[in-house]
Structures are given as C-alpha cells and as structure tokens.
Specification:
Layout lengths: L6 E4 L4 H12 L4 E5 L2 H15 L5 E5 H7 L2 E4 L3 H11 L8 E4 L4 E3 L5 E4 L7 H8 L5 E4 L6 H4 L7 E7 L2 H12 L4 E5 L6 H18 L17
Parallel strand pairs: 1-2, 1-4, 2-3, 4-5, 5-8, 9-10
Antiparallel strand pairs: 6-7, 8-9
Helix pairs in contact: 1-2, 4-5
Length: about 230
C-alpha cells in the first residue's frame, strides 16, 4: 500500500526530480513537486499527470510551500545550489521531517562532463545537508546512482539503491520508498558518513555510461534475501 505521507521533491523540476516523481506517482504515492517557481512546478506536475493518468496524486508548489505541506522531503538539486536552498528553506522545514538527500558534489571535467567528485568539508553532500537543516530534522542519503534518463522512461530500473542514515526511522522510510520503484532493491548502507562513497560511485557510473553509451546502475550480489527490500 502507498505511504499516506506526501513526498515533497525539492528542486523537483530537474531530470532526477521528475523521474522520481513519475515513478512514485505511478505506484500511488502522493507527490508534491517543489521549485523556486510555483508555475514551473505545476507545469511539471501536470506533465507527469498526463503520463500517469487522472488518478495520479501530484501537484506543484514553490519549495517553501512544499516543505510546509509535507514532512518527507527529497532533495534533487545540483550540489552548487544545495546549501543556498537549504538555508532559504530552513524556516519552512517542519521539525520531525525526514530529508532524503540525493545530491552529488560533481566537478566538471573536459568538455563539461562530470568526471569526479568535489571534496566536501563535512565529508559528503548529505553530511553537509545534515548541518544545514533545522534541529529535529533527520537525514538519509539515497538515489544517487539511478539514471535520470531511465527514471523518466517506462522500463524497470534493474538497479539497487543503497540508503545511508544515522536515524532508524529515516532509514526505514527511505528503504520503503526505494523499494516502491519497479525493479529496484533497497539495501541498508549503514551510517550517513558512508554517503560519500555513494556520491563517488556516481562519478564512476557517469564515466562508464559515457564510455559505453548506456544507462548503467549498480547491483550488489551475494547477500541473503532478507538484506534486500
């Protein structure tokens, strides 16, 4: 059954945000697309609804309104905008909210292609987010390694999502939401500090996908069935 709590995707008009919104809307989740521009957010929501059907529970709002309307937040902005957005939204984020951070600190390489991750003083983008959110807000890191192109398509994803968090409730909720994506297995990746490894894997995958002209993800093998959601 779908979770009754709405999911606000902040910066949700980009490829990763719209892809997650599309996939969750298809399985019955209630989605709020957040954007700096409420009109743009609603346009993105309407586009997804046209793909899913009138039964889709999806709307668009300005980011701060989206935070006020939901306590499950997914951050899908480029790293250069992460700190600024979280500082702006701090008064709007409700205590007790869970923020799922999918930010990757990518550096542009030759030709503008992202080839490596930037150093983050806190250790990872997710740990930086943890320092910027209000007290009482918990953080999980996930969804870094899913192809935005595949998310916005129709095929099963055939990929594992590793989730890192220091909070058991944030971890379990994020594992559940990841497992709602068709073709995805969700795996507990341990503490939030491990998010830096997930972020680095993204740069590797981008290079592999450019080299081999694909949309590859990752699969973790060899665990007992109960390790996968």
């Amino acid at each position: 059954m779908p979770d009754s709590r709405p999911i606000a995707i902040l910066g949700g008009t980009g490829p990763a945000g719209t892809g997650l919104a599309l996939r969750w809307a298809r399985v019955g989740e209630t989605i709020i697309i957040g954007s700096r521009d409420a009109h743009r957010a609603q346009e993105a929501a309407d586009k997804i609804k046209s793909k899913v059907g009138d039964q889709a529970r999806i709307s668009g709002m300005e980011n701060s309104a989206a935070c006020a309307a939901a306590d499950v937040l997914v951050l899908t902005v480029p790293f250069e905008g992460q700190a600024t957005l979280l500082k702006q939204l701090k008064p709007a984020i409700r205590s007790g909210s869970i923020l799922i951070d999918a930010t990757v600190p990518l550096a542009a390489g030759v030709g503008g292609r992202a080839s490596r991750t930037l150093g983050v003083w806190q250790g990872s983008a997710a740990q930086q987010a943890a320092e910027l959110v209000p007290k009482g807000v918990t953080i999980a890191a996930a969804f870094h390694n899913l192809s935005a192109d595949l998310l916005n398509g129709n095929e099963a994803l055939d990929c594992d999502v590793i989730v890192c968090s220091d909070d058991p409730d944030a971890l379990q909720l994020t594992l559940t939401l990841a497992a709602r994506l068709p073709g995805v297995r969700a795996i507990d990746g341990g503490k939030l500090e491990n998010a830096r490894i997930l972020e680095q894997i993204t740069a590797l995958l981008i290079g592999l996908n450019i080299r081999h002209k694909g949309h590859g993800g990752i699969r973790i093998t060899g665990f007992p069935p109960e390790a996968y959601r």
